[in-house]
Amino acid sequence: LAKTTQPISMDSYEGQEVNITCSHNNIATNDYITWYQQFPSQGPRFIIQGYKTKVTNEVASLFIPADRKSSTLSLPRVSLSDTAVYYCLVGGGATNKLIFGTGTLLAVQP
Amino acid sequence: DTAVSQTPKYLVTQMGNDKSIKCEQNLGHDTMYWYKQDSKKFLKIMFSYNNKELIINETVPNRFSPKSPDKAHLNLHINSLELGDSAVYFCASSDSLPGQGIYEQYFGPGTRLTVT
Q: Is the pLDDT of residue A3 over 90?
């Protein structure tokens, strides 16, 4: 079973780039890495997904090293509205296991 | 239009009661999920159904029973509720199977269950 851990919290200021890491030492060969954002009293919302190397979309980038034992979500130029809890999710491979990370509370200050 | 909806949004009940939470998605997805988020905000998958067939069944007490009358609905029935069942329960759906690798899950707004 992949055990996924994240820093409990991070602080940032508006306009800065924020990098949130997720450790998943036991990731399976076919597992994907997905990141979700959750605001209070709402369900998680998809941000980005990747398998290896780098993936970029309009809101974030995802960096995955060759050994895939960790991943980094990069949010460019955060704003106050990016204050939320961010979760990594490891799974989707042949084992059908889906393991959420412990979550990182990102607090963006003006 | 709400993509994934859950009812009720809040549910307060006493120990020993039986309750159900309903979930509906209008996205045309084949796969639906139930997750539990505890007081520490940890998210854990409970069940997943694909086209009305159970494909993920994590270690969950058998007091929890999912029911999928059709692929747009996945309901969660809980028997003999216990204090430890208090949590937020999220329903989600996706257009591919876990195991296919590529999937984006759409989550409902959650149902906050409080057992007293």
A: no
